[in-house]
Design goal:
The protein starts with a strand and ends with a strand. It is mainly beta. It contains 5 helices and 46 strands. The protein is globular and about 90 Å long. Strands 26, 27, 28, 29, 30, 31, 35, 36, 39, 41, 42, 44, 45 and 46 form a 14-stranded mixed sheet that branches. It has a 5-stranded mixed sheet with strand order 1-4-10-7-6, with no helix packed on it. A hairpin with a 2-residue loop joins strand 41 and strand 42. Helix content is 7%, strand content 35%.
Length: 641
């Protein structure tokens, strides 16, 4: 009834190349009146944003080298197509299918098209994206290897009566496959902690210059241990380019270790740091990303693609797709629950059920993480959960954690006046948006890839939250919108490209099960990094990170702090922060450091009071900075009076 559309060429293309595509729309029985409109959506993922040629206000010398010019022609004589970059009418950011959500988010860049006369069935509109007639190189195919979909949406007569912000979606083959480039680098991933003599799987991940997984990698690879000798393994498998050395035996003595992979073309890479321990009962470190978006809301890719990427390409241990609540209807939520169960594989990979609670008037955005997959979603527009306090009331009796994110962001940032110690157990210190530890820190929270700063929300940083007495552990995740948990595509995975890669959360747990990982998160036995798998141990008088120690449990007043760090690069600096002030710093060479510090300052004058603490308290945490700029932050240890 509303016509059909097709794209040419429909062949697979390579990332970061210029092409010209023709999109042909054939008018259906509903026609297209002069008052009607078409919306063309162009994929995200680094594709050229649409541009009109000639520009409405041409510069003195038109720049024909720009990419992404769009032109349109109509088959009916006397009728012209008028293109516009203005936002489509009734286009809003959030809420498709959700009562009270208030709008629709378009799946890509939008271009609005009107016609100067009425069109009838079988008339044709031909839209050229990447038109080269002006001398342009075409349109860039993006930097993200994925299934890219263009879209045509129609309001036939201007009445805006369709489902998608008043438009009907036109069916047709409008997908193209964007393929990765050849491998430029290798990523070697091994367990961060392993027992002496234990056989483990080691994975070698081939990536192109945009960090896309090279699914066509079939080059011979060898594995070398800490002593430089080639390592034995039981089997070798390949899945979508990833090489897995099954049951590899890492030789060498106990302590920190690294292994090396090298392919037959001469590419080589060192693994993440590994702690080889003689204690088989020692807690392991598991890595996760619990703040990711897909095409279910304002991101790219399917749920299955996201979890497969997390498990097979990013090689992380657990993940959560946290769809925006205002874009998540009942069907979406059921799909998320089903995917979290389908990909649940204890010992290999753990999906968690989560969503992003987008309340920005009172308390700020939060990721809501559930232990179980049969839970409800409580949205900001739902009765009873329109404020953080209402959300926490709804969560009573459930195993859930709420994590403020991007606390220093102007619009999403955290208001620490609103806090619930039962659920707000963790805070996201870092994501693709930047670092929210304190104002003025390295990697400041930005608006986009140009490091455009916006004034921070007063009182929203992690340090300001800790000063209120909130007992929140430290974690990090990505908030990436490319459906890539665990390894964000920095080069343009979404229209709002970020200035930084996403972070990771590291959890100390006995085993890779939901129960064990949940306990590690709940008890704040976790820390955050900027994406590097830095190993960080932090102990105060025998208590691990995340502990809240009664003053009476301390033997004497001296606080003995022990820190062990194994970095993915040289360690530039290790800082001990007490009550938000640096009280000790260690610098030195090398990627492995063991540091001890005794704080003998009188303890009584150090105690603080805060609105969220039942009594006086003080706290310590550790910040690690590598030579390459990558960072890690421990969860705090508190002493309560």
């Amino acid at each position: 009834m509303y016509g059909t559309a097709m794209i040419h060429p429909a062949d697979a293309v390579r990332v970061a190349r210029c092409y010209q595509w023709t999109i042909v729309y054939t008018v259906g029985e509903a026609g297209l009146a002069r008052k009607g409109r078409l919306v063309l959506t162009i994929p995200m993922g680094g594709f050229s944003s649409p541009k009109l040629f000639p520009p409405d206000e041409p510069p003195v010398r038109p720049d024909n080298s720009l990419t992404g010019y769009v032109t349109a022609e109509v088959s009916r004589k006397g009728v012209e197509a008028v293109l516009s970059l203005e936002n489509p009418p009734h286009s809003q950011t959030y809420g498709l299918g959700v009562p009270g959500g208030g709008g629709y988010i378009w799946p890509g860049f939008t271009l609005l098209l009107r016609v100067t006369g009425d069109l009838q069935k079988d008339d044709v509109i031909t839209i050229t994206y990447g038109d080269r007639a002006s001398g342009s190189a075409g349109a860039v195919s993006g930097t993200y290897a994925h299934r890219a979909e263009f879209g045509i949406f129609i309001d036939p007569d201007g009445s805006l009566s369709g489902l998608c912000a008043g438009y009907y979606k036109v069916e047709g083959p409008l997908e193209i496959e964007v393929l990765n480039d050849p491998t430029r680098k290798l990523i070697v991933v091994a367990p961060s902690v392993m027992g002496e003599g234990e056989a483990v799987d080691v994975r070698v991940v081939p990536r192109d210059q945009f960090d896309n997984l090279d699914a066509f990698y079939h080059v011979g690879v060898k594995l070398m241990g800490p002593d430089g000798a080639e390592q034995p393994y039981k089997d070798l498998t390949r899945t979508t380019g990833v090489v897995t050395f099954g049951s590899a035996e890492i030789s060498g003595r106990t302590g920190p270790a690294f292994i090396q992979a090298e392919d037959e073309r001469g590419l080589s890479a060192r693994s993440n740091p590994i702690i080889v321990t003689a204690n088989p009962a020692a807690p392991r470190i598991f890595w996760g990303d619990v703040h990711v978006h897909t095409e279910l809301c304002d991101g790219l890719g399917t749920l299955a693609e996201a979890y497969e990427y997390a498990r097979d390409a990013a090689c992380i241990d657990f993940a959560a797709v946290a769809t925006h609540d205002t874009l998540c209807d009942a069907r979406d939520w059921a799909e998320m629950q089903e995917a979290a169960e389908r990909f649940h594989e204890p010992g290999r990979f753990l999906p968690f059920l989560a969503y992003e609670y987008g309340e920005r008037k009172v308390g700020g955005d939060k990721t809501v993480l559930y232990k179980n997959t049969d839970e409800e979603i409580f949205r900001t527009m739902d009765e009873g959960s329109r404020t953080p306090d209402g959300l926490w009331r709804k969560l009573r009796g459930k195993e859930a954690i709420t994590m403020p994110h991007s606390g220093a962001h102007r619009t999403m940032g955290t208001n620490w006046e609103h806090h619930d110690p039962e659920f707000q157990r963790l805070v996201e210190i870092y994501s693709e948006w930047g670092n929210s530890e304190y104002n003025g820190n390295p990697r400041p929270v930005t608006w986009n890839c140009q490091v455009e700063r916006r004034p921070a929300r007063p009182g929203g940083t992690v340090q300001e939250g800790l000063a209120t007495g909130a007992r929140v552990g430290i974690m990090a995740s990505s908030d990436n919108h490319s459906g890539q948990p665990g390894h964000s595509n920095l080069m343009g995975s979404f229209a709002r490209r970020r200035a930084y890669r996403g972070g990771l959360v590291a959890v100390y747990a006995e085993e890779l099960t939901r129960d064990a990982v949940w306990d590690g998160l709940w008890n704040r036995r976790c820390y955050g990094t900027t994406g590097a798998r830095i190993i960080l141990y932090f102990i105060l008088n025998g208590y691990p990170m995340g502990s809240d120690i009664p003053l009476g449990s301390l033997e004497g007043s001296t606080r003995k702090i022990e820190i062990s760090v194994a970095g993915s690069d040289g360690i530039q600096r290790i800082d001990v922060i007490r009550n938000n002030e640096e009280v000790f710093s260690h610098t030195g060479d090398g990627d492995v450091h063991r540091v001890e510090f005794e704080d003998s300052d009188p303890i009584e004058p150090l105690f603080l009071t805060g609105i969220h603490s039942p009594g006086p308290f003080l706290f310590y945490y550790v910040r690690v900075t590598q030579v390459d700029g990558e960072m890690a932050w421990s969860s705090p240890i508190w002493i309560s009076k």
